[in-house]
Design brief:
The structure holds two protein chains of two kinds.
Chain A: H1 5-16, E1 21-22, H2 26-34, E2 39-45, H3 52-62, E3 71-76, H4 81-88, E4 100-105, E5 108-113, H5 123-137
Parallel strand pairs in A: 1-3, 2-3
Antiparallel strand pairs in A: 2-4, 4-5
Chain B: E1 15-19, E2 23-32, E3 36-46, H1 54-64, E4 70-76, E5 82-85, H2 100-103, E6 131-133, H3 135-147, E7 154-161, E8 167-174, E9 181-184, E10 189-192, H4 194-200, E11 203-208, E12 215-219, E13 225-226, E14 232-234
Parallel strand pairs in B: 6-11, 7-10
Antiparallel strand pairs in B: 1-2, 1-5, 2-3, 3-4, 7-8, 8-14, 9-10, 11-12, 13-14
Classes of the chains: A alpha/beta, B alpha+beta.
């Protein structure tokens, strides 16, 4: 049962205001994922204050890194269900959780941060984890 | 980072491992009291199930999470050997549980609710041995100062209210303020305000690298209760 859009809108804006592309349909997800060159990050957003409340600011801090992914998108779990299911189909070996973050390089999943490694962590700690992944996979030669 | 549901147990919203003599459960803690531990979106695993030991199962679960088998499961408290955060298992079975995983016969109390914090012993502001940084922590701070262009700033360590266990550590780059304790630290200074000095006396700041590492870690000998991520504590 989706939450009222007026409640969710600020949570969407917290990411889209950073330039993160929001994918609302399965077709939009496919279009994003099929550009499978370079690095791409997909953030599964969530209303959960316990975890997503730290994840979104963590993403914001991480994106201050000079080594950020080439393309960044988000889907909203529980709200945009079709888009979320499609996004999860690109990492279907991993149990669904939200929020979570997936990093792809040339179409291959190279790093994944599930919910249980987000919940209880500060934005700074989440950002540090993401920056480490960026440094490993997103540095331009 | 704590939760926003003050009528629930401190682990509400956190993915936990619940060990019982028969099986281990992994799920998002909804609540916990004297009678039961309630998990949402939970899975369970018995020793040897699917050819995997509990330890092997938990190692994978800690990396990726678990597939939901139960929307809600209630584990009777008298069956519970322990409850731990799943994130504690990213490096394998925590040392204090090794040996207990195979038999799981010793039934210990699950982590207690946060007790009322006794007043900490006051420390003498100005002491230079309040906080110790490991070599790994110093190296990471120097790297951050260099890469994030924080030259001229020091590392501020502080404590404030909040988090799963009552108090939360804070770590930032800042200028020295009046009344701060300043600790020279091979290339930079560490600043602590007077209040934080009381809580941080004896603390060691470490740093774990790697994707599964926890980043900066506070090791506090005065903490009587810490949350699994190590970010918050009580004294």
């Amino acid at each position: 049962m989706p939450y009222p859009e007026e409640l969710v809108a600020p949570m969407r804006a917290e990411l889209t205001s950073l330039g993160v592309e929001e994918l609302r349909t399965a077709a939009a997800v496919d279009t994003f994922m099929k550009q499978n060159h370079g690095t791409a990050m997909v953030i599964v957003n969530s209303v959960c204050g316990c975890a997503a409340g730290g994840a979104r600011p963590g993403v914001r801090l991480a994106l201050q890194s000079p080594n950020r992914p080439d393309r960044i998108a988000t889907v909203f779990a529980g709200q945009d269900q079709e888009a979320t299911a499609k996004a999860r189909s690109y990492f279907s070996d991993i149990p669904p959780s939200s929020p979570c973050v997936a990093l792809f390089k040339d179409g291959e999943l190279v790093h994944f941060v599930p919910r249980h490694l987000i919940e209880g962590r500060s934005p700074q700690m989440i950002a540090q984890e993401l920056k480490s992944a960026f440094e490993e996979h997103c540095v331009k030669a | 980072m704590g939760t926003f549901h003050h009528d629930k147990h401190e682990l509400h919203g956190i993915t936990v491992v619940v060990e019982t003599p028969e099986k281990v459960f992994v799920g998002r803690c909804d609540d916990m009291d004297a009678a039961e531990v309630i998990l949402l979106d939970a899975d369970e695993h018995a020793e040897g199930q699917g050819g995997r030991s509990k330890e092997e199962y938990l190692k994978r679960a800690a990396k990726f999470g678990v597939w939901k088998k139960h929307a809600r499961v209630s584990v009777p408290r008298e069956e519970v050997a322990w409850v731990r955060r799943l994130s504690e298992f990213t490096q394998g079975i925590p040392a204090d549980l090794k040996g207990g995983m195979a038999t799981a016969t010793a039934v210990a109390e699950p982590p207690a609710q946060v007790a009322a914090a006794p007043a900490p012993k006051p420390a003498a502001p100005g002491a230079q041995d309040v906080v110790v940084l490991t070599e790994a922590a110093k190296e990471e701070v120097r790297r951050l100062i260099r890469d994030d262009k924080k030259v001229g700033l020091g590392l501020r360590l502080a404590v404030s209210g909040g988090g799963c266990s009552g108090l939360v550590y804070k770590l930032d780059f800042d200028k020295k303020k009046d009344g701060d304790v300043a600790i020279a630290c091979e290339g930079f200074e560490v600043y602590l305000d007077k209040k934080s000095t009381i809580y941080l006396r004896g603390v060691t700041l470490d740093h774990q690298k790697g994707l599964s590492g926890k980043g900066f870690i506070f090791k506090n000998p005065n903490a009587t209760n810490t949350c699994g991520c190590g970010e918050s504590f009580s004294v």
